[in-house]
Amino acid sequence: MEKGDLMKFILRKCLIIICKIRQLFLFSSDLQGKNRVALSTKIKSSKLGYGTYVGPDSEINNCIIGKFSCIGPRVKTIVSTHPINFISMHPAFYSTDLQAGFSFVKEKKYNDFLGKIYIGNDVWIGSDVLILGNIKIGDGVIVGAGSVVTKSIEPYTIVAGVPARKIRDRFSDKKKKEILREKWWDKDINWIKENLVFHNEIKKC
Predict the structure, then answer these.
(1) Cα dist. 50→47, 66, 84, 143, 192 in Å?
(2) What angle do CA 42, 51, 144 make, to 5 degrees?
(3) Would you state the pLDDT for residue 11?
(4) CA-to-CA distance for 103 and 13, rounded, in angstroms?
(5) What confidence tens digit (pLDDT) does each residue in 133-170 have?
(6) Contacts of 66 (CB under 8 A, 6+ apart)
(7) Interior CA angle at 187 toward 170 and 157, to 5°?
């Protein structure tokens, strides 16, 4: 085998390995197109809308994310909990899922699943954000870096902190209603290019 052919063979094998690794990190998930997911990020039982990307070292689990959303690095979703009213909170005493590799019970005694997380369209989540299960983050929301999101957030709100609290609205109520009514993210991609690329900035709301 000549040197050039050998390099092509090695490159092809490397690409196959990378694809297999990506499949492991994208377990049972649905990517709608034009998505970029960092190699070190894990996505499980989730859906990413068109154009949404996820930064490195994030863990997205049981999450439905809309279109054109921006998920920063090291974002984590937390969809399970522990029973704080049990004598022991260790899963060996209430779960058969073998979280610790063993269990003392034959049937599940506590539902530790918090619920799915819904993240809207055109949402920006900063780095190192934690999001608890069973909440909804509305369209156009901004979540500041390092925040812990413990409750649902109304559309076009800026939140930050531990726990995350409202900082301010992004736009006036009138403008918010107008954007939510139009739902530009559901338009044809050519319409989006023509109407947002050159007319995206809002001078005053």
Answers:
(1) 10, 7, 39, 20, 13
(2) 65
(3) 72
(4) 41
(5) 999 999 999 999 999 999 999 999 999 999 999 999 99
(6) 49, 52, 119, 120, 121, 122, 123, 139, 185
(7) 15
Q: If DSSP codes are grouped into helix, strand and coil, which group holds residue 91?
A: helix
N-to-C CA span, the chain: 66
How far is Cα 112 from Cα 55, in angstroms, rounded to an integer?
A: 28
| Three-class SS state of 95 | coil
Token pair, residue 127, equals: 């780095």
Residue with tokens 């920006």: 124
State how far the Cα of 84 lies from the Cα of 93, in Å rounded to an integer: 13
CB atoms within 10 A of CB 3: 7
The Cα–Cα gap between 145 and 128 comes to 6
Q: Which two tokens stand for residue 141?
A: 């929301």
Low-confidence residues of the chain: pLDDT under 70: 1-6, 8-10, 12-27, 197-205
**Catalytic annotation present for 90:** no
> What's the token pair of residue 89?
């909170």
pLDDT of residue 205: 45
Residue 184: what pLDDT? 95
Q: Which of 44, 82, 175, 187 is catalytic?
A: 82
